[in-house]
Amino acid sequence: MEKILLKTENLSKSFSVGGVMQHVLKNIDLALYEGDFTVIMGASGAGKSTLLYAVSGMDTPTLGTITFGDKEISKFSQDELAVFRREHCGFVFQQIYLIDGMSLMDNVLAAGLLVSKDKRVVVERAKKLFASVDIPEEMYGKFPTQISGGEAQRVGIVRALINTPEILFADEPTGALNSQTGLDVLNTLTEFNEQGQSVVMVTHDMRSARRGNRILYLKDGVILGECNLGKYKHNDMERHEKLSAFLSEMGW
Fold first, then answer.
1. Which element (helix H / strand E) includes 158?
2. Read out DSSP for 16-51?
């Protein structure tokens, strides 16, 4: 039986825009499972990023509950949420947000040392992660402005994984990259998922979505449908056709 990492009940999020309430998420019941590569899709404004930010503790819901393990994180204070994110979540964004004035290694250590005070252990884990994403040792001392966008995103993945998060959240991680560097990042995420890393990714891109084993389609703040593709296989046309048919059915 699959282990539930995180679940929501009646999750809702509303904003006031010009005095008019906008209901972005509406009573969402959702479970995220250990080892899954979950993809969240939907048209612009469907609530994809809002859902990701809510379940990851980056934003608080208007109504409903979010439970991680035996902890109801939707009741946490902002300080408690900050600790929760550092210890249990990793984040990869479309904009990479590396600190320009710090080397690549220091960008990663800055995140790792927030959780572990043993610098030697953090450095060793960073080196292993850098090697796994093909960032050689001679690049550790470089600054973000001295590397390509694809390399920077791979460093961002290392930073996201340095504290061994239970869930890696990715919001359009290839959105600012060209086709080849985007493919490199997708391959990296897939490899980590194959090693057991749970991933939740927001995307509007079919190529990216095919990497998921579970596709959730949002429309007007609700989960309209779900498609289960199984584990990713390269050049799997049946997988592509199943996802295409599902998205067509959803009105994509």
1. helix 149-161
2. EETTEEEEEEEEEEEEEETT-EEEEEESTTSSHHHH
pLDDT digit string, tens, across residues 19-28: 888 899 999 9
pLDDT of residue 144: 96
| For residue 96, pLDDT beyond 90 | no
- At 178, list the tokens: 């060209």
Q: What is the largest CA-CA distance in the chain?
A: 54
Superfamily of structural domain 4-250:
P-loop containing nucleotide triphosphate hydrolases (3.40.50.300)
Domain ranges of the chain: 4-250
The shares of helix, strand and coil residues in the chain, as percent rounded to the nearest 5, are 40, 30, 35
User: Is the separation of the CB atoms in 74 and 61 below 8 Å?
Assistant: yes
- Tell me the CA distances in angstroms from 135 to 66, 69, 155, 206, one per residue in order: 36, 34, 8, 27
pLDDT tens across 112-134, in order? 999 988 999 999 999 999 999 99
Per-residue confidence (pLDDT) for residue 112, from 0 to 100: 95
Hey, what amino acid is at 45? G
